[in-house]
Amino acid sequence: MIILSALVLFVASASAQQDTLKYRISLRDKAATVYSLEHPEQFLSEKAIARRQKQNLAVDSTDLPVCRQYIDEIRRQGVNIVVVGKWENFVTVSCNDSALIEHIAALPFVRATEKVWTAPKMNKGVGDAMRDSVINEPKIYTDSIYGPALTQIQLSNGDKLHDAGFRGQGMTIAVIDAGFHAEYPCLGHERFCQSSGGFICGKQSWTECAFLHRNESAGNYDRYCTGSFLLAVPQ
Questions:
Q1: 3-state secondary structure of 49
Q2: Contact indicator for 208, 184 with CB cutoff of 8 Å
Q3: For the segment 1-12, what is each residue's pLDDT rounded down to a tens digit?
Q4: Rounded distance, CA 200 to CA 212, Å?
Q5: Residue pLDDT, tens place only, 95-145
Q6: How far, in Å, CA of 10 to CA of 8, rounded?
Q7: How does pLDDT run across 25-74, given as a tens digit for each residue?
């Protein structure tokens, strides 16, 4: 049974990776929800609820998860679910046949459909050559605790926030990017340690590990080479 389950997951993953089209499916409502706004603890974390109370923000329908019944019905049309967004109430799907989207558009709970991505037509050899031609040679600022990331943090005045005492206490920090995998060596928790400054993480203020190289054709980080990775963490 375990082997069969693993095989099913492998096939589903391979299918999603081979899809050449992605569509955003906007939904009309959340009428089929199994949750109630009177019990936000069923779908929001304690921290999220506390934040809303602190900011006097009422829990409303945008906080409700996208209806599972809708997601399942969309999946049954033969597409793969890529991502689900509760605030704007949408589902992004991938497929190879645009006719499937016509069936989805006819579902009573679907408000609109929009193509958001088409796989680029590029020879594999050409893509590899373009990717390998990108060389990252950051300038090292030996007199700064930020190392090669000094100019980047100055762009957003992050260094001034640190100087003013804002070190991220009590904050949840999210990294929004094209995507990277937790198994990269530089992302292992055992590789990080706090410096005397309290908010720069890593050996000698910055961790020696890997710069992730972006694969433009795949839209994610799937290669790395020797380099450095700088991370600021809360105290």
A1: helix
A2: no
A3: 444 444 444 444
A4: 19
A5: 999 999 999 999 999 999 999 999 988 766 555 555 566 676 777 778 888
A6: 5
A7: 999 999 999 999 999 999 999 999 999 999 999 999 999 999 999 999 99
Q: Could you give the C-alpha distances from 231 to 15, 188, 195, in angstroms and in order?
A: 35, 12, 11
Six-digit token string for 207: 């961790």
| Measured distance CA(62)–CA(76) in Å, rounded | 25
Joined tokens for residue 40: 């936000």
**Phi and psi angles of residue 19, each rounded to the nearest 5 degrees, phi first:** -65, 140
- The CA R_g of the chain, rounded to the nearest whole Å, is 22
* 39: exposed, middle or buried (Cβ count in 10 Å: 0-12, 13-18, 19+): exposed
Amino acid at 175: V
Tell me the pTM: 0.61
